[in-house]
Every structure is written in structure tokens, then in C-alpha cells.
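I'm curious: can you give me some protein's one-letter sequence along with its C-alpha cells because I've never seen that pairing?
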Amino acid sequence: MSKNIRTAAVDHLFEAILSLKDSEECYTFFEDICTVNELLSLSQRFEVARMLRSHKTYLEIAEKTGASTATISRVNRSLNYGNDGYDMVFSRMKDGKPE
């Protein structure tokens, strides 16, 4: 069953995120809104996605990121069957490549 995340509260959160101007503002905001572990988990999943798109093996990814194979598999499923959010962001990053 898919949960509907499109709520007014999520809209307000995204509006707040979109108002951030640079990395320093991101650090300030995300350190307030997330626990350290939540932020590290999000960044780990993003790193896993980046490495999967760069054709790294599960073993290489696990060794470098400390992610479990379950996490790597979950991210891989999102990359292959999700909403293409990761790829959208990768295409907009500085060099246009995930790595």
C-alpha cells in the first residue's frame, strides 16, 4: 500500500527547503530539523545511489558507506522502479554525473 505523502505539512517542509540559498543554510536548517542519525542515513542513501549509478558493486558500496545490503537493495529498487528522483537530481548536479 502506498502512503500519500502529499500533505499540507509536507508542502510546507518542501517550501522551507526550497527557500535555502546555499550549503551553509542547508547545514543550519537540517541540523535543527533532523537528528544526526537521520541526516547521516539520508546522506548514506544518496551516496549509495550515486555509487550504484556509477556501477559500483554492492561489496564496494558496503565497504565505503557502511550501508547494509538491505539498504543498498532498497536504494537500487528506487533507482530502477521509483520515480526517477535520484536521476533528476544527478542530472542537475555540477558535473551532471553521479560521481
